[in-house]
Each structure stands twice: as structure tokens, then as C-alpha cells.
Amino acid sequence: MNKKYLLSLQKKYNMSTKSHLIAPSVLAADFAKLYDDIIMVNNSDADWFHIDIMDGVFVPNISFGFPVMQAIAKHATKPLDVHLMIVDPDRYLQVCKDSGAAIITVHYEACTHLHRTLAAIKELGCKAGVALNPHTPVALLKDVLADLDLVCIMSVNPGFGGQKFINNTYAKVQELRAMAAGVNDGLLIEIDGGVTTANAAQLLKAGADVLVAGSFVFNATDPLETVKTLKDIDIHVETI
What we know:
Its EC number is 5.1.3.1. There is one protein chain. The protein has helices spanning 3-13, 34-43, 66-75, 93-98, 114-123, 169-180, 200-206, 215-218, 223-231, and strands at residues 21-24, 49-54, 80-85, 101-107, 127-132, 150-154, 188-192, 210-213. By secondary structure, it is an alpha/beta fold. Strands 1-8-7-6-5-4-3-2 form an eight-stranded parallel sheet. The protein is globular, with a radius of gyration of 16 Å. The chain starts with a helix and ends in a 9-residue tail after the last helix.
């Protein structure tokens, strides 16, 4: 966990001091009452808003564009963790920053010149992340690992919410955490897709730092309590 960065966020946004972060995915919100869902996340134990921007080309779905993201940013009191599921993301880095992004994550599979893209994100003053599709090995990040603030491991195929969790994710998290040791000890590992209370503890034990939860939170009877349950998971407490 990047302790210095996490502490700065906790101070700026009055966040919890627990060791892992929860990022509800706005893709699963009710767009007819989006303002209410934003306020719910503000009032919850969540740490970030996870924002999926999809173009219908890189992934077989279209989510929402930057005007909606700007509307979210206007009312959000927590950082926007923006996941660009688009081709040629370099064209949109500036508008992404201007629309309120604190973290910008691009896909390895969509970047021809990944090192240059990461540098451009950092020049904008944002944290730089890379997302990996389920079929993409973590070993491919070796040459840029030291330049990353975050790696988002897709635990479902990107494009749609509510998919079944892919179990190979645990091994990928463990491999990435081992790769980062001594190279980038502050790397944040984020898991996106199918995260629930059934797999959250195992993901954290494997080395994850940030849990993205969409349908599991927004479709819950009590979203506030669901976020709290995810946040309160303590992998150091042994159960009998």
C-alpha cells in the first residue's frame, strides 16, 4: 500500500484509516437518480468513486461521457478513480483531468506507447494506473512497474456489470504483488469486477488494496451497510 499517498487522501477527504479502499462503481448506479446515489457514496465508508468511461469500441458497451463525469465531480466529496475503457486514451487525458479525475487508469491493451501515456497522466497531476484484461499476463508490466501508482486487475471481461468473478484473479494478484516487491512497494492493486463479501477477504489476503464494487453495492437493500461490511473486513482476524 502506498502509505504516503493513502495518508494524504485520508487527510484531504476525511477518509477512514483502514488499510484497504472501497470504490463503488457508478456504472451500476441508477442513472435516473444519480444525484441520490452520489450522496449515498459521499455518506458511506467508501473511499473513491470508480468511474468507467466506455466507447463501444474497446469494449462492447457505451457508459457515459465527460459531461456526466463533470456532474458527478460537482457533488462528489471523494476522489474520482477514472477507468478509461477506450481506444486511443491519450486524446482524452486532459479532458479527463479537467472533468475531475484524481486517478486515471488506461488499458495496457489500448496503449501503443504505454510509458509515454503514463508520463502524460503524471504531468497532468493525476495518479497513473494501468488496467489488465483477464487474458493479459501481469508479467507484461515489468518494464513500467516502477512508473505505476495503480494496477487495475479486471476480474471479469470489461464492458458490463454484474458478471461472474474469474477465479484466476487471485493468482494474478499474488504474482503482481511479488513482482512489485522491492521495485514499487507503494503500488496499489485494484480489483474490478464481481467483488462481493464472498471473495473480498481472499482478494485482500492475496495482496489487493482497492476493491471496486458495482452491482453488489448499488443493488443492495442497504448500500451503506454493504459498503461498511466491505470496508470492515479485517484479514488479520482469524475466524473459527
